[in-house]
Amino acid sequence: MFSLARRHLYLCVGLRDDLATFLPAVLEGGVDVVQLREKQRPRAEQVAPGREMAAICRDFGVPFVMNDDPTLALEVGADGVHVGQDDVSVATCRELLGPEAIIGLSTHADDEFDAALAQAATYLSAGPLEATPTKVGRPGTGLAYVQRCVARSDRPVFVTGGVNATNVASYVEAGLRHFVVVRALTESRDPGRDARELRRALDDALSAVTI
Hints:
The protein is of the alpha/beta class.
């Protein structure tokens, strides 16, 4: 089973034509968890790329997670699944995938986070810190909410919403330790370079605090 305690840079990425080059580039740059998060394409179109991504991540020793569907996670050989508040329950995911699987659960409010702490998720996510086009229609939760989540959590809390190389140090100073990125790398013209830059900023900030 992968430990996520010292994994700090989590990439969510959808299907793209250059996955075979994009994914190794960002993994070499320091991404240490990957999720295939594809909300638009049908399940059948995610199987082959999911298997390819799982194999690439395995070569790098990095956990690979599918979004929403634990049966798809099984089919592609993923290390786990990430679900939202309206998806398959954590308990069902755990029953399907087993005790060693990574299971993540999204939260966006204090009551959701409190309920999540009683579930058998490997990690929780909190946010988005600010409104983001990757979560259409969902307002930002602000920093105070995710700080409360981190303060009372017994497992890693991955924070979502607009994290990049410019602001990640300020979030580390505010007490956050685990970060989900999307646009900072998926919209980059040089994903490998930008992953290295983001990882360097993150590691410099973490080295200045007690993790």
